[in-house]
Design goal:
mainly alpha, about 210 residues, two-stranded antiparallel sheet
């Protein structure tokens, strides 16, 4: 039987996303590219294990790589970092089509917004694509609520826009290192979800593996 994708090579592997057998070559080249692989696919898991031992390089022209992040910024704002990570994971839990690229676009746009705010300039440019724009708006709402709560507590130090900028840059870089760069990769999303294993709001989606 020939591969369901290329229709040339011998079909050797059952693809849970397509419900058909495909060849090893197509499995490797189309995985998380044209194939929307379920996170519990055994071939995907094996590929991710290999990637863990071979960290990919980030292109030199990637935005925000030249920003020098203060060493203590994450330590002094652990709760806020956790809140941002949880908000992203929660958003993606109810948006099953969300991929790492969507998350990175939203974080990058938000970082650019707070970069201009920290310079005293009010300029906002949300992402054009609907899903990253929705995540961008959700994070804006979260940050506004946190700032409001801090304002209601006289003893609490106000959160500075520059601090938010550095935290978002840190989160963006973390995402760049966690994802594998494939169009349909969810490695970063899965990583964030894994930081809150007890949360019922981040319950894993039911397996999308199609039983042959």
């Amino acid at each position: 039987m020939s591969c369901a994708i290329c229709e040339k090579r011998k079909a050797e592997r059952f693809c849970p996303a397509k419900g058909e057998k495909i060849c090893a070559v197509c499995c490797g080249t189309e995985r998380e590219v044209t194939i929307d692989c379920p996170s519990d696919c055994s071939y995907l898991i094996s590929a991710h294990r290999y990637e863990d031992g071979h960290q990919r390089s980030v292109p030199a022209d990637t935005p925000l790589l030249d920003v020098k992040i203060p060493q203590d910024i994450v330590y002094t704002h652990q709760q806020l970092m956790s809140a941002l990570a949880f908000s992203i994971a929660k958003f993606c839990a109810v948006q099953p089509t969300a991929v790492d690229a969507d998350v990175l676009v939203a974080i990058q746009a938000l970082a650019q917004t707070y970069k201009t705010l920290s310079a005293g300039i009010i300029y906002e440019k949300p992402p054009d694509a609907p899903l990253p724009r929705e995540l961008y708006a959700a994070l804006i709402t979260l940050i506004s609520e946190i700032k409001k709560q801090q304002g209601e507590r006289a003893s609490a130090a106000g959160l500075k826009d520059a601090e938010l900028f550095y935290l978002l840059v840190f989160l963006y870089r973390m995402g760049l290192l966690r994802t594998n760069g494939r169009p349909r990769s969810r490695r970063f999303i899965e990583f964030l979800r894994g930081q809150f294993p007890q949360s019922p709001e981040l319950k894993r989606e039911e397996s999308r593996i199609i039983v042959p």
